Amino acid sequence: MCDDAAMDADADPDSDLTARVLASFAGTPSPRLRELTSLLVKHLHAFVAEARPTEAEWAHAIDFLTRTGQLSDDRRQEFILLSDVLGVSMQVIGINHAASETATASTVFGPFFVEGSPEFANGDDLSGGAPGDPCLVTGHIRSTTGVPLPGARIEVWQADETGHYDVQYADLPTPQGRGHLFAAPDGSYRFWTVRPVAYPIPSDGPVGELLRATARPVMRPAHIHFMVTAPAHRTLTTHVFAAGDPHLGHDAVFGERPSLITPFTHHAPGPTVDRDWYSVDFDLVLDPL
Ligand SMILES: [Fe+2]
C-alpha cells in the first residue's frame, strides 16, 4: 500500500516548517509585531528556498552581519550604510515621507549624524577649520502654506574637501563641518562652511567588501546634509546636491533626487574672501503635520 501523504512527509520532514514557525508567533500580543514577524519569516524562508544557500554561504552571511554589527557604534553606523546601499533606506523614506509636491524632497539620513552638534548664529562659520574652499549657504525655511518658519532648527553636517566627515578622524578635538542654527524672524538662514565634494562611502568594512565584490561604485555626489525641525511640521531630512558633480546619477546609496540638485556659484577672490569661494541658495520647505 502506498500512502502518498506519508511518503511526502518522509521525503521532506520539514515541508511544513514555514507554517510551524509562523504558528509559533501566532500568540504575539501586539498585532503589529505579529504581522512583522510573520512577514519576516514568510519572506526569509522564501529567499532561502529560492537561493538554496550552502552551509558555507550561510555561515558567511552570518559572519558578514556579525561584523556589520561589530563595526557599528555611536560614531560609525555600518548597519545604516548597509541599509543605504541596498536601497532600503530610500524605500523606508518613500513610505514614511511622501512629501507633498511643494515640500522639499527627503533623502537618506546617512551614517554620520551625531547628536549634540554645536550651536551657531546666522552668519557664523560652522566649518570648524575643516579644509576646503569657503562656501556661503543661504536660504529660507518655510511651510508649504507659504508662511516662513522663524526659529526652525537647522542641523547641518558634511564632509570636508578630502571627503571625510569629522567623526572619521580619530583625533579631532572639536566638530568640523557640523552644527545647528535657527531660522531668523523672516525664516531666512545663513552660514559659512566649506564646499562639499564627492566622496566614497566607508569601504573598509563589510559594506565595502560587498560593493567591491559586486563591482558597484562607492561614490556619493557632493552634498550637504540638512535636518530641519519646526513646530507643527514634519521633520525634513534632506541634502543639497551640487549641480555638475560627475557622480550625479550614480549615487552609491540611491539618495539623489533631481529636485535637490542646486548650482553652487563660483566667486573669485575679493575684498571679503581672499581665495576662490562658492555660494549656494537652498530653500527648505516643510509639510505641516
Ligand atoms: Fe553624506
Question: Unreliable segments (pLDDT under 50, ≥5 consecutive)?
Answer: none
Distance between the termini: 69 Å
The count of strands amounts to: 12
Q: What would the principal axes of the Cα set say about the shape?
A: globular
Q: Class by helix and strand content?
A: alpha/beta
- Rg value: 24 Å
Give a short account of the largest sheet.
5 strands, mixed
Order of helices and strands: HHHHHHEEEEEHEEEEEEE
Summarize the structure.
The protein is 27% helix and 20% strand. The protein has helices at residues 4-11, 17-24, 31-51, 55-70, 78-85, 88-96, 206-213, and strands at 134-143, 153-157, 178-182, 188-194, 199-200, 219-220, 223-229, 236-242, 261-262, 265-267, 277-281, 284-286. Strands 1, 4, 10, 11 and 12 form a 5-stranded mixed sheet that branches. Strands 3-2-7-8-9 form a 5-stranded mixed sheet, with no helix packed on it.
3D architecture notes:
This protein is of the alpha/beta class and about 290 residues long. About 25% of the residues lie in helices and about 20% in strands. Strands 1, 4, 10, 11 and 12 form a 5-stranded mixed β-sheet that branches. It has a 5-stranded mixed β-sheet with strand order 3-2-7-8-9, with no helix packed on it. The protein has a two-stranded antiparallel sheet with strand order 5-6. The longest helix is centred in the first third of the chain and has 21 residues. The protein is globular and about 85 Å long. It starts with a helix and ends with a strand. The model has no long low-confidence stretch (mean pLDDT about 90). The structure holds fe (ii) ion. The site of fe (ii) ion (FE2) has 4 residues, from strand 7.
